[in-house]
Amino acid sequence: MKIAIDISQIVYQGTGVDTYTRNLVKELLRLNSTHKHDYILFGTSLRRKHTLDQYAQELMEEGLKFKTSFWLLPPTFTNQIWNQIHHVRIERLIGKIDLFHSSDWVQPPTRAKKVTTIHDLVVYKHPQSSHSEITSVQKRKLHWVKKECDAIIVDSEATKKDCQEILKIPQSKMHVVYLAAGNSVDDFVRQSQNFRKEQVENVRRKYHLTKPYILAVGTREPRKNLDRLIKSASKIPEVNLVIAGKFGWGDQMKNDNFRMINVNVLGYVPEQDMPALYSGAECYVHPSLYEGFGVTVLEAMTLGVPVVTSKASSLPEAGGEAALYVNPKNTNDIESKIKQVLTLSQKGRSAIISKGLKQASKFSWEKTALETLNVYEKVYGDK
Questions:
Q1: How far apart are CA 286 and CA 247, in angstroms?
Q2: Is residue 38 within 8 Å of 376, Cβ to Cβ?
Q3: Which of 81, 130, 173, 208 has its CA 20 to 30 A from that of 147?
Q4: Has residue 254 got a pLDDT over 50?
């Protein structure tokens, strides 16, 4: 089978779609030693094509086999021709294929079998978390997904339910395929204890983290619920709240809370620094109002960090019985659960860490790739 995958979204480094695409594609190509398929990595970008080229180079250095088709096209243009006009088949750019896995940005027409991934329905459930243009683009894309796609991969049962209720997509078309912690986290865990300890100290110095800290990771936008987290953390002066993640969208970012003494806003943190940043935390706190999945929850658990997260949307699917859950709209509950972690005995802390490691071990990118490949093969076989 000749499979083309749109990897354009990796140019938005540090985002969830970047993590998903990089890890999935790498594992699919690794599996190809036993599953013989021909892969074409397709991508478009006007200003960041070098990111596509760099990723392809990394894969080639690992000895993985694939072809590329990268084009200097801006996202505004691809949105216009593929989401709005819905013209020009993808075959015009990459040749004949059997299956096309589209990104979350555009849905090109094609004669091939069509698969896409819907990570979440933020544009419907929390439109204030995205720029109005992004919301408009994704809604147009989802129109064609519903109309044309042969199979839709979703990150969680919660997202599947949202797609059924909001988009009216038949259950038979959807396949839940869970994600996993990033490869950089797995690589870090395999290092020696001395190496990991040294890296934690290096990251503390680099980001001037002199006090014990609790960590929150994610794009800074209203649905991440950081206002409430900051209010909760302000009542726990013995620790700092460290927030890692790019600026997102919304008035929340103008809030003076982000300039409080015990809040460290780091902005984007390079992937290589993240495992040590997690590992140095007293606990990881993720009180999000809505998520398609909870990769950062799994990353913290993989690194032996206790997790406090929301009992909302998909997050219990990621955290299982290993996380402490909060009502994300109740600051007293958030504060209480953080304090509960901070005051655990050594035995209690070890127990919750052990549960987290067991929960995280249920997920892997190899498993994600295998289940994705099963979707490809089922769709291709249903001719």
A1: 17
A2: no
A3: 130
A4: no
Q: What is the DSSP letter of 150?
A: S
Q: Reduce the DSSP state of residue 131 to 3 states and report it.
A: coil
Tell me the β-bridge partners of 39: 3
The string over 112-127, giving b where at least 16 C-beta atoms fall within 10 Å of a residue's C-beta and e elsewhere, is bbbbbbbbbbbbbebb
Strand 174-176 relative to strand 151-154: parallel, antiparallel, unpaired? Answer: parallel
**According to CATH, what is the number of the domain 183-360?**
3.40.50.2000
Give 58-61 contacts, CB < 8 A, sequence gap 24+.
Answer: 59/25, 59/26, 59/29
**In sequence order, which residues have a C-beta less than 8 Å from that of residue 236 and are 6 or more positions away?**
214, 335, 338, 339, 342
Tokens of 116: 């896409």
pLDDT tens digits, 300-350: 999 999 999 999 999 999 999 999 999 999 999 999 999 999 999 999 999
Where are the CATH 3.40.50.2000 domain residues in the chain?
2-180+365-381, 183-360
pLDDT in tens, 116-141: 999 999 999 998 877 888 899 999 99
Q: How far apart are CA 332 and CA 101, in angstroms?
A: 44
User: Model's pTM, two decimal places?
Assistant: 0.93
Report the CATH fold assignment for 2-180+365-381.
Rossmann fold (3.40.50)
Q: How many residues does the chain have?
A: 383
